[in-house]
Amino acid sequence: MRDFLDRTYGILARHPWWTLGLLLAAHTAWTMDCRALWFSDEVRYANAFENVVRAGKWLVLSLNGQPYPDKPPLYFWFLALLHTISRMPAVFFLGAALSGLAYLFATLGLTRSLERPRDAGLTAGLILLTNFVFIGLLHYSRMDLLFAAMILGSQAFFYKAWGPGGRGGQRPVLAGFLLAGLATLTKGPLGFLFPLLTAFCYLAWRGELRRMADRTTLKGLGLMLALLLAWLLAALAVEGTDFIQDILGKQIVARATNTFHHKEPFWYYFLALPPAWLPWILLPLVLPFWRVFTPEFWKTAWNGRRQAGSRAWLWCMILPAFIFLSCLSGKVFVYILPLFAPLALLTADALEDLDWPRARLFWVLASGFLLLLALALPVAEALLPLPVAPRGVALCTVLLAATAIGLFLLRRDGARAPLLFLTLALLVWSLPLNRITLPSLDDYMSPKRQGSLIRAYVAEGYKPLAYDIYSGIFTYYAGTNLLETSDLTKITAEVEETPKCVLVIRKKHWDAWENRPSRLVAFDEQNIAGQVYVLAATAPR
Q: Which 3 state secondary structure label does DSSP give 116?
């Protein structure tokens, strides 16, 4: 088995782009439209997207009929392009899959820019395809993978320009700034802050900051600012100054300094990153990691800083970004995605350099972790008080346990054979997970059922109302905008003045509602991601 896998690995390493592309296609081709869109981001982004293609909201996104300043529009333009060949809601999953492909290809591009062998690129790609977070995001409709891919592309071009020798000239600088601008138009200012922070720290470490202070850098910066300013001016023309103030003040400055949403302590990412990098976070346990804490290590690093090359660049992609994210007021788990590619390349280096005893120990640890995870699946199913019964858990458990056993049997076979086996085994495991288990959670994770009920009532002339909900979560499946408000007196007035209306409200607010209009009758409840929502209507069917 080892000889066969090693030979296969050698063949695949000669064609890393095709290999990773086909592996990703195998992960996603069978899961494009297997489940409903889930709470909360998927259904909100779906409504924003349908407002792009159906209501013409191309420059400024719209959510539930209101301007939506939280996100720039570029990802939704990307979905609109895909919509020419795919229908909704499959287009959202196609967008996620192609964003994952862009991330893998950006990782290969970074590998080439750093002048590392093709083997390293393939190994890093397989490490990503055996990371549980990355596998999961291939099937979740978000812009984060595409956003991170553009950041990686920008960093790859900047290394060509400002790495040892500066062999790239003007074009990579301009390309790096262009991709940084496009990343910013995909999700926000981190799109240009990450690449510039990497370049600044790397050149500062080498004592060559002056290399950024030239005419070419000013040209690139001007190109990026012109791109961003063009969109801001267009948004200003469409929505006015209040919208721009919301973007610059609330969405950027406030989220960075004193956020209204996702506020977390400084140490949040210190706890979030280790489980996010499973199972590869186990690799440092078999490495002589203690050397990092010795004076000799830092003395050697300092003395050799002026000769620092691609490995130093990878660390400058990780550490400054990690510290910067930790200093922000608003923290979201997926912000660390741009760190995954450099982590994968450093992990690939460490894996290839392992001696046989350490490699064997690592695969034993990894197989043990997978076995524990397999055993935890049925236990979690029994203990978690979900209002739905997940299907396919037994099959997922058996496949994961078989993966653990197979990895243990290959523990003596170096690095490549077990890695390739793990990649293929987790691919097989993910198929029933995404085709059977996750769709069975729709009634718990998706507002589709209640949204469809609202749609049916609206078709019969009922006015849709919503009290104190996360804006836009029912709009896509309801097929219409809801009157959303956090003012209960306004809801009461609407009920009294409107002959026929249907209301969605959280159960805790429904139960606490004093002087509730008697003509409003509850007729449905649904637990959506831990919150129970009530549907009520005047003269319900």
A: coil
Backbone angles phi, psi at 259, to 5 degrees: -70, 155
Encode pLDDT of 296-341 as tens digits.
887 888 888 888 889 999 999 999 999 999 998 888 889 999 999 9
Half-sphere exposure of 520 (CA within 13 A, CB side): 26
Q: Which tokens hold the place of 168? A: 């790239």
- Secondary structure of 170-224 in HEC code, one letter for each residue: HHHHHHHHHHHHHHHHHHCCHHHHHHHHHHHHHHHHHCCHHHHCCHHHHHHHHHH
Answer whether 224's CB lies under 8 Å from 180's CB: yes
Residue spans per domain, the chain: 69-353, 356-444, 447-538
447-538 placed in CATH 3.40.190: yes
Tell me which residue has tokens 């370049």. 199
Residue 105 clears pLDDT 80, i.e. is over it: yes
DSSP letters spanning 84-142: TT--TTHHHHHHHHHHHHHHHHHHHHHHHHTT--HHHHHHHHHHHTT-HHHHHHTTS--
The position carrying tokens 């990450």 is: 194
Burial degree of 87 (CB within 10 A; 0-12, 13-18, 19+):
exposed
Q: What is the dihedral of CA 317, 322, 328, 333, to 10 degrees?
A: 100
Helix (H, G, I), strand (E, B) or coil at 450: helix
> Three-state SS for 61?
coil
Structure pTM?
0.95
Q: What is the C-alpha to C-alpha distance for residues 304 and 307, in angstroms, rounded to an integer?
A: 6
Spatial distance between the Cα atoms of 164 and 43, rounded to a whole number of angstroms:
46
Q: What is the DSSP string of 249-304?
A: IIIIIIHHHS-SSSB--TTHHHHHHHHHTTTGGGGGGGTTGGGGGSHHHHHHHHHT
Within 8 A by CB and 6+ apart from 259, the residues are 328, 329, 330
Alpha-carbon distances of 440 from 387, 388, 392, 435, rounded to whole Å: 11, 8, 9, 9
Residue-level pLDDT at 167: 62
Q: What is the DSSP letter of 328?
A: S
Length of the chain in terms of residues written = 541
- Find out whether 243 and 60 touch, Cβ atoms under 8 Å: yes
Judge whether 528 and 511 are in contact, CB under 8 Å.
no
Question: In 33-89, which residue ranges form alpha helices assigned H by DSSP?
Answer: 41-55, 74-82
Q: Tell me the pLDDT tens digit for each residue of 367-402.
A: 999 999 999 999 888 888 888 989 999 999 999 999
